[in-house]
Amino acid sequence: MTRLKTADVMNIPAMIQNYDYELKKVTGLSLMELALEVTNGLKYDTQIHRTRVAVIPVTSGEGAINGFSEAVQSIAFHLGFDAFVTKFPDVRGLAEAYNKKADLIMIADDHNFIAINLGNGRVVNNTEATAAGYVAALKQMCGSLVDQTVLLLGAGFLGSCAAERLLQHGARLIIHDLDQEIERSLASKLITNYGGTKVLYGYGITRALSMSRLIFDASSGDVFIHGGLLQDNSFVAAPGIPIGLNEDAILKVGTRVVHDPLQIGVAVMLFQALGS
Ligand code: 2YJ
To answer: Taking the CA of residue 132 as centre, how many other CA atoms within 13 Å lie in the half-sphere pointing to its CB?
Structure first.
């Protein structure tokens, strides 16, 4: 899992309105509408304004990331939550969150980023929420995933969460990972449940790209897709950091791409934690 850097998150608070405007242009849905789409059944209501969200900085491992907690808070605030960053990190921050009557806690170390709803006990994991949000974004961009071939880049935890969701939406998957053993292992697991016509693997990146107009980039490796390999009219959902497209490919895909460091994942976490 890629560790976020200050440069990835520092502009999120200042740019959140603009980000949402662009997201709506690309997917037809605002950040809130996308998160509500994932948590179908949940309705927006004034409960959000009454929900106090405490973001607690964590210094363990590689330490707090300057700007991370403020970025998470700004996303929650933008969505209408009553969000604050605790003055203290770690266990003192947890005590502060309880003392200040937080309803929902957001907390991340180097391995896990979770939301905990103290009222209903729900715990939501950022990776699962991010996968769900980006699958919804890809579906929105291209209309429907039913019988569409999606190239899934990266067969780690993010990729495997996305794979389940993509298959549940009726897509056919081509799985690609630089590590062939990881690729084979995810594909075999999915084939058991969804069948061999729905899950393909072992094609190599060039052939896989020639077969797929839709790309879900859950990789966190080096840039490896060049513009020449992308089909015309491709759609890319890229939660992986950094994005696996080089400059040519980014130019070619134009506005048909969704990629951010935190916004979609955090929005979906918040709404999934609220529950229906
Ligand atoms: O509180 C802090 O500032 C830090 N402990 C935050 C650590 C953030 N964690 C990561 O960057 C992890 N790799 C998980 C990020 C998930 C984004 N999809």
So the answer is: 21
Ligand 1 centre and the CA of 227: distance in Å?
31
Strands (E) in 52-193, as ranges, are 52-56, 82-85, 104-108, 113-117, 123-125, 149-153, 172-176
Decide: 265 in ligand 1 pocket, CB within 6 A.
yes
pLDDT of 220 strictly over 90:
no
Q: Is 117 strand, coil or helix?
A: strand
CA-based angle 130:181:179, to the nearest 5? 65
Q: Which residue, by CA, sits nearest to atom 17 of ligand 1?
A: 262
pLDDT: which is higher, 258 or 1: 258
Q: Is the CB of 49 under 6 A from ligand 1?
A: no
Pocket flag, ligand 1, residue 58 (CB < 6 Å):
yes
Distance between alpha carbon 69 and the CA centroid of its chain, in Å?
17
Question: Closest Cα to residue 79, out of 17, 27, 139?
Answer: 17
Q: Is residue 109 in contact with ligand 1, taking CB distance under 6 Å?
A: yes
Any atom of ligand 1 within 6 Å of the Cβ of 130 = yes
Instruction: Write out pLDDT tens, residues 90-109.
Output: 999 999 999 999 999 999 99
> In angstroms, what is the span from residue 66 Cα to ligand 1's centroid?
11
Contact status, residue 138 vs residue 258, Cβ threshold 8 Å: yes
pLDDT single digits (tens) 14-29: 999 999 999 999 999 9
